[in-house]
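Async update (no meeting this week)

Hi team, since we skipped the sync, here's where things stand on the single-chain job. The sequence we agreed to prioritize is pasted below, unchanged from the tracker. I ran it this morning and attached the output directly underneath so nobody has to dig for it. Comments welcome in thread, and please keep replies under the output.
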Amino acid sequence: MVEALTTIEKIKSTAPELVGSLSDDTLTTFIEDASLQVVVDRFPEAAHIGNSDVDIRELAARYLACHLASMDTPGAKGVTSEQVDVIKRTYADRTASGWLNSSIWGQLYLRLYEQYAGGGVRHYAHIQH
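Output:
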């Protein structure tokens, strides 16, 4: 197992409204999955920005964990509208935008990936579960 690259506390302080109803066990699972993905995607341990070294893997793992947490919301499932009487639900077509583009957190992860891990080439790996 890969060492966790971020913490529950950082996830909760980054997106309190998103993760407030999730258990610590669920957040731990998201952190473990995100940490493994960050390592597989070959993020460097640090990035030199200005005069500082930034723990870019922690940031990427935090954004990806938040993205995973966001996948259980109606918007993430593509629901654009609902109607109660004579039940009606409308879905958006998200196939063209890609899975990581379906949330702001996934988009932030992709941006870090392109800047620090993939060199602008979109060949990130998906871990089979």
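Quick observations from my side:
The longest helix spans residues 24-40.
The radius of gyration is 16 Å.
Reply here if anything looks off.
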